[in-house]
Amino acid sequence: MNERVVIFIDGSNFFHGIRYLNVKIDYAKLVEFLRRGRYLVRTYFYTAVPQEKDVKKGTPEWDSLMRQKRFLDELSLMGIKVRTSNLRKLPSGEYLEKEVDIMLATDMLSLAYRNAYDTAILVSGDSDFIYTVEEVQRLGKRVENASFKKTSSFNLRKTCDEFILLDDYLDLLIMEEEKPEEEQVEKPQEESLLRRILNLFRL
Fold it and tell me: Of 101, 142, 159, 191, which residue is 20 to 30 A from 63 by alpha carbon distance?
């Protein structure tokens, strides 16, 4: 039987890793790389988002929120199941991330109990998931761990059945830069100008 896998991406931990490396990751490539030809049941992405009522429109924070929402919409269109919680705004103005780890751990355990997968691929370096991993393993499931060196926990790596250091595969995961549209538009404009000049000479 083809091995069934579910990918669980800890968005916050993942962002810290790519921010340190200053790279843009193509999530479609990431999913294909991690599944390694196995049957993909689903990919989950977990993150926390500020509530719009807590962010003033027209500010850099508002623009950042809109970019984040567009990014999450793009993930959804790729078939990735986005799971979000609300960032809580403190009196100091700072935001506190709550519930994200609990959501991921709950889904990972719940789907294991329901025998929805054979292998869980945990994309995180957070050692808080060690107990979740151990319980999933007691249910007879395998757990693979993928993370960046900067955000990786040695104890989590040691607990999982397999570890993948994403730093070693960046060339397979980085998003390709789009070619400027000017190069595509410039040639037709030049041809159009040439036609007009030729028409003048025909007169």
Answer: 101
Residues 6+ apart with CB under 8 A from 21: 148, 150, 167, 170
Q: Does the structural domain 4-178 have CATH classification 3.40.50.1010?
A: yes
pLDDT tens digit string along 36-79?
999 999 999 999 887 777 777 878 878 887 888 899 999 999 99
Q: ∠ at Cα 112 (111, 117), nearest 5°?
A: 85
Contact 122, 128 (CB under 8 A): no
Instruction: Tell whether the torsion through CA atoms of 31, 78, 15 and 108 is positive or negative.
Output: negative
* Torsion (CA) 117, 119, 124, 130 in degrees, nearest 10: 100
**How far apart are alpha carbons 73 and 56 in whole angstroms?**
21
Query: What are φ and ψ of residue 200, in 5° steps?
Result: -65, -40
pLDDT in tens, 178-190: 555 555 444 444 4
Q: What is the DSSP string of 121-133?
A: EEE---GGGHHHH
Separation CA 102–CA 132 (nearest Å): 10
Q: Are 101 and 13 in contact (CB under 8 A)?
A: no
